[in-house]
Amino acid sequence: MDDAERVEQLRALEELKSAAAAAQAQITAAFVASQRAEQEAAGVPRRDVGKGIAAQVALARRESPHRGNTLVGVATALVAEMPHTLAALAAGVLSEHRAQLMVKETACLTREDRARVDAEVCGDLDRVATLGNRRLAAAAAKAACRLDPHAVAERAAYAVRERRVSLRPAPDTMVWLTALLPVAEGVACYAALTKTADTARAAGDQRGRGQIMADTLVERVTGQTQASAVPVSISLVMTDKTLLAGDPEPGHVAGYGPIPAQTARDLVRAADRAWLRRLYTHPTSGQLVAADSVARCFPAGLAALIATRDQTCRTPWCDAPVRHTDHIQPAATGGPTSLANGQGLCEACNQAKQAARWRSRVTHDGTRAGPHTVALTTPTGHTYTSRAPDPPGTTTAPPGKPRLDLVFDAPWILAA
Ligand SMILES: [Zn+2]
Fold first, then answer.
1. Cα(280) to centroid of ligand 1, in Å?
2. From the CA of 22, how far away is ligand 1's center (Å)?
3. Using CA atoms, how far apart are residues 364 and 370, in angstroms rounded to an integer?
4. Domain map of the chain by residue range?
5. pLDDT tens by residue, 349-395
6. What is the pLDDT of residues 207-219, one digit of tens each?
7. Taking the model in full, what pTM does it have?
8. Closest by Cα among 371, 392, 376 to 279
């Protein structure tokens, strides 16, 4: 193959991906309609119809339930209301992402207005092929503003209700703390931080502008006078050898993920005080099997142990934080309140699991070799395996040897 052919192939494969996305949209829309009809026929109460459908789409596509919701919304809109956008996707002229932008920018419009924007922006395939993400979204937004300015303004008011703060891991033991804010408030926050940094720098502060802004944000949010002295509560799991014998096995911070052994030791050393909880791991499976105090274990301690074992929601491909401790076999049908029968789920997955004809069953309780596993079966009969993550030390511990994990429940003082 020469380079000209390689370029042709790249283009052809891109068009194939778009065409596949269009086919997936059509299949998704048909699946949603069929599942809803089935639920209605089975006498599912009106307010529960639709539950668990997007979660099945998410599992099939190996995506999170949150993304499953988006995919279902986009597919339904494309198939039912936006034939030109769907045709552009099928022809390989629009990517899946751009088709989603079209759906998003017209979400507040009536069916008729949406169809008008669809025809206006995507009716001409040659023209739409030349538009990048921003220009495509702008073209759709402009048409929407012209057709129904009231709906666009109303959507802006609705968007304000979606304001929130979120946290996600970044490389090198850092995190992204992000806030979704109304434009005036967001710009005001940024301007206040910039101004503080500029004033401090003018007065001889040696820190960089970005560093001062970050420190000021932490100080003002936590009410501390120094960013480095913020008391926080973190849960850190590491092996006894990592803590005491300089072993390189990484530790694990709840809500973040693995951290280097030395960073874990530094956190412990810097802590003002720490609560220590011993967790016992099974000699052959390496899985967490018990905490040292049964009295504290039940129920808050057991829930904490399950959250430590599972780290994030146990639904495959869902990385959301654990919000609920779920009985895998429902308590109502005799499922015990135990480590083996418990799993950490996020809010959305806990709800999806309540929908009709979803079944969960423990396939491995974690006391024999191998991790705790749960089989999740959806209404169509597809089964997905949820496997508990390995606690620190599992891969390096010699088989057959009992091992001890340490969990520190702070409050930490991350003082210099
Ligand atoms: Zn989940």
1. 27
2. 26
3. 8
4. 3-160, 164-228, 232-284+399-413, 288-387
5. 988 888 878 999 999 887 767 789 999 999 999 999 999 988 776 65
6. 999 999 999 999 8
7. 0.73
8. 392
